[in-house]
Amino acid sequence: MTAVEQLRRVPARWIGIVGVSLALVALTAIAVALGAGSDGSLATAGGTDPSTTSSTVSTVRTTGSLSSTTVAASPTTGRTTTTFVRPPRTNPGDLDLQDAYVFDIDLDNPGVAARPIPDDPPAVAPPTTLAPPPWAASTRLTAGGHVATDVGCATDRFAGSLDAFLAERVGPVLGWDYQHVYPLGDDRFLWLFQDTFLDHTGTSSSLAASRFVHNAAMVQEGSCFTLLHRGTTARPASFEPGDGLGGVRTKWFWPMGGELVDGQLWVFWAEMIKDPYDPDPPQGLGWHPERVFLATYDAETLERLAFWPAPNGGVAPIYGYAVSSDETHTYLFGNTFEQNMIREGGFWNGPHSATAMWLARVPRGAVATQPEYRTADGWSDDPAAAVPILERYYAENPMQPRYLGGQWVAATAVDGYWGDQLAIDVAPDPWGPWTTVEYRDLEPRGGDPKKNTYHAHVLPWRDGYGSVLVSVSNNARDMARDAWYNPERYRPMVLFSVYRETPATTTTTSTTTTTTTTTTTTTAPPTTSSTTSTTTTSSTSTTTTTSSTTSTTTTVPASSTSTTTTTTTSSTTPPPTTTTTAGPTTSAPGDEG
What we know:
Layout: H1 3-9, H2 20-35, E1 56-63, E2 66-72, E3 80-86, E4 101-106, E5 140-141, E6 147-153, H3 159-167, E7 173-176, E8 180-185, E9 188-193, E10 196-198, E11 211-213, E12 216-221, E13 224-231, E14 236-237, E15 251-261, E16 264-274, E17 287-298, E18 304-309, E19 318-325, E20 329-335, E21 356-363, E22 372-374, E23 379-380, E24 390-391, E25 400-404, E26 407-413, E27 421-427, E28 435-441, E29 451-462, E30 468-476, H4 479-482, E31 493-497, E32 499-500, E33 509-521, E34 527-538, E35 543-554, E36 560-572, E37 580-581
Antiparallel strand pairs: 1-2, 2-3, 3-4, 5-6, 6-13, 7-10, 8-9, 9-12, 10-11, 12-13, 13-14, 15-16, 16-17, 17-18, 19-20, 20-21, 21-22, 21-24, 22-23, 25-26, 26-27, 27-28, 29-30, 30-31, 32-37, 33-36, 34-35
């Protein structure tokens, strides 16, 4: 896909225009628009709503690494947008097209407007004449101490069926987000969610009238699911209460990465602290991670066996943000998970800390031991010696890597809450080089303009066609206004990406032959020697050869000795090998099963 096609496909609300050349064009266009035209009109980069093409510039500023221009819409629309451009940044191993960004923000519908922590509604018993909901008969208390409710089955484990299942109310669950999925063995998986709204009575149709917990779980067996939480059906409590201190509005625990080891599931949990304020949009969310804990659960009963501070309990970054193992090591990917931009000087003071991904490792399965950290040239026991394995984007780079099918695959919701695109990356090793093999728009379910997408997470199995399955969180940008009474906006979706192998490394073999000739002359004209060099660049599908010639002219005085060197270079470059496994070409997304 060409850069122009990328530009045409990008939504007007939040635009990731990629490519250093495009960023320069955008900056030039803004400068020209500001300096020319008696009407002050501005053609913003990224395809702003056509109704704003006759808008007037009201504000121009440069803050942090972003320059911005605020544009007031025509009186007929009242729409206001701001275009922000940040300089390009080099990302080794990543697509050059992703090095620069232009954000076109609709100020009336910003990236994150509100995600409040709700108060519990008053406890009201349903009328005794009301028939119990269909899931009530399956509700029980498990050996692990959880309230369990069977909530139904998807048709199969393909993306379309899973997406349809999660789009509806799932038994007592009206809405939830930030899904993490862990293998339990024997075709069983544990789904852990962050904030979840529950109603066991079946009488509530809104989040406002539901019970709220900061985390909940579902056990998947085949394609059927069972909800788990603590407390009671009348007053549910979080699946993982953590250390039991704090409260729903002051401190709680959110799931990060995890791994199955010898019949026990190990999960990293971030202790979250509520900040004393709620940031205005687009400054982010009013809480932050404080410490990291490690919990173990019996893989069969999900009984919690232990909960204690992680070996590295720091949050700068959180090692354990994502976890996966290959044949020899368990890798702990690190990210700060910082989403309150005020704590980092404000949204405009980017790129922010969560754009960097870090890496640590332990021997396979030894999750409770002190890790070693990836450095610029290897591994070290000193966390201070660690360097990021990848830095990209502006607000967040929330990669979720997984070792799948013998290679590393990662899904990333570009810029998290603030973005609306998806990147699929592959790598031969967890430290890279990471190659972006798919980059596309990430529309919320139904294309709802009031919703945003975030937390793209690779599921731990591939479908029958070999495709990678990716779950993605949805929410309303203004949750209190647009999701409180429309809970269908606060439910994850599932999509698929065609499995692509890591591109083969291009190798070049050079043979150089040098012949030296000595000539003695009495009078010599200028002597010109030319050296021709060939550079070969490889991508996953094409090989392009570019030749450049450099000439050097030397004037040799009379009665001198001239030495001429001839260099012959031959290069052999095998083409990259790419294997693609896909379903029938007639299948549309969601219809592959």
